Amino acid sequence: MRARFFLFLLLLAPNISWAHDAPFALTSVEWNTETGSLEVIHRLHAHQALMLAANADFSETRRLAVIGLHVQQNFEVMDEMGELIQLSVIGAEFDGDYIIVYQEAVRGASPNALRIRNDILMQTSQQQVNQVNLNIGQGRQTLMFNESHRGAFLPLQ
Questions:
Q1: 50 and 70 Cβ atoms separated by less than 8 Å
Q2: Whose CA is closest to 145, among 121, 129, 124, 123?
Q3: Nearest to residue 121, comparing CAs of 22, 24, 40, 41?
């Protein structure tokens, strides 16, 4: 009985490690009523994100800057009029096995709708999936992006 249990764990182990390094990024987009700004937080697997700076002998700070620039170039938010909301990278940091990238745009008024393009880390894996959680308006909405679906328009509640 005990041997079967260990055999089961050995068979399961590759699946557990695959899930840990799955090509997945999580983004949260929120409206801050106090500051009148759109706040965006991206959570990327460090191992996958660091592949963007793998060919260079950079310091940790420069690697975070490369990843921040990648996010800046591959994540766009437009308002209901189709105008690009200028998000600025305000920081990036390691958090265990993840890299967190922070963006912000001061707008004054909350948008009524958003058009989002999310190509973050798409060139590192064809299986990349990016989830965006929107906390604007009266509820939480979730969008999923992948190789064949990189953009979405969303009226806000």
A1: no
A2: 129
A3: 24
Q: Which helix (H) or strand (E) holds 95?
A: strand 88-95
Q: Work out whether strand 88-95 and strand 84-85 pair parallel, antiparallel, or are unpaired.
A: unpaired
Contact assessment for residue 43 and residue 25, using Cβ atoms and an 8 Å cutoff = yes
State in Å, rounded, how far the first CA of the chain is from the last one.
55
pLDDT digits (tens, 9 = 90+) for 116-128: 999 999 988 889 9
Phi then psi dihedrals of residue 12, to 5 deg: -80, -25
The residue among 47, 66, 46 whose CA lies nearest residue 56 is 66
Sheet holding 84-85, edge to edge: 84-85, 75-78, 113-118, 151-155
**Angle, CA of 24, 26 and 29, to the nearest 5°:** 155
Please report, rounded to a whole number, the percentage of residues in the chain having pLDDT higher than 90.
53
Strands 24-32 and 129-136: parallel
Q: What is the pLDDT of residues 62-90, one digit of tens each?
A: 999 999 999 999 999 998 888 999 999 99
